[in-house]
Design a protein that fits this description.
It is a single chain. The protein is an alpha/beta fold. The chain has three domains: 55 residues, no CATH class; 166 residues, 3-Layer(aba) Sandwich (Rossmann fold), CATH 3.40.50.700; 71 residues, Alpha-Beta Plaits, CATH 3.30.70.20. 47% of the residues lie in helices and 14% in strands. It has a five-stranded parallel beta sheet, with helices on both faces. It has a two-stranded antiparallel sheet with strand order 3-4. β10 and β11 form a beta hairpin.
Amino acid sequence: MLEGLKKWFNKLLGREAKPDAEDEKAKLKDSVQQVVEAESKPAEEAKKAADAAKAEAESSEPNIEESSTQEVEKVADKPRVGYIHMSGCTGDGMSLTENYDILSTVLTEMIDIVYGTTLVDVWTEGTFAQEMPEMDVALIEGSVCLQDEHSIKELLEVREKAGLVVAFGSCAMTGCFTRYSRGGQLAQPKHESFVPISNLVKVDAAIPGCPASPEIIAKTIVALVNGDMDYLTPMLNMAACDLACGCDLQTSVVNKALCCGCGTCVLACPTRALEMVEGRPSHNKSRCIKCGACSTHCPRTWFPAERVKKDLGL
């Protein structure tokens, strides 16, 4: 196009023989038209291709209403979980948050936290208030204080609203170190009697540990979502567990010649109240906090062999 304009300009300046004006105008018009068409053809083809791609994308885009329905159904299928904190150190809640690599997935994609004194806040007219909703699973951390009317009321209400009540950690399961409370301490000197939640309500399952490990919490949630009863069965069996200290381990395992000397109980003890002496656990009562970790981790009290083989790929 530029060359055509140059030639036309030169002719106007008289640098070339000047032909008939009308013929020159017609030729110049045809030349310009040809150049413009040649240069615009790729652009038009590109535009047509882009329009076709856009139409195809719009036709393949899912219906908004259908997509919303699918999302709602997906959310509705997630277990509704409540987290209730009674009397304890909140160590089990901290173990939950130590699942850094999968925490966001667990809390947002696998379960719905619908109630919790520390994980969920609801404000109504400027005053903290949260009505306890229906729950599929209630994780209860800490033992219950018999002098705390609010805790007792909340525990009884949880039992009514939750399909599955889980003793979350040793305090809820056995009373753990809160068993040693004698009252007189600040800020609630009247609080002196702490018992496992199973003393007041029916418990369906227990997650042991002082605190429960991040791994067992994550695996329990995954097993719950997937309906993996093979993994959950030992925890269901531990719901009625009353083995709370090294004395019980001595009576139920060592004295019955069942101890294999593996040392798992010693490794599980959070206060080093156990040590291996001549191939057998020796119990130091002054260090024991009655968490029950030694008994629940002992392969002679329960040993899900098939599950262990599955996890190890054997």
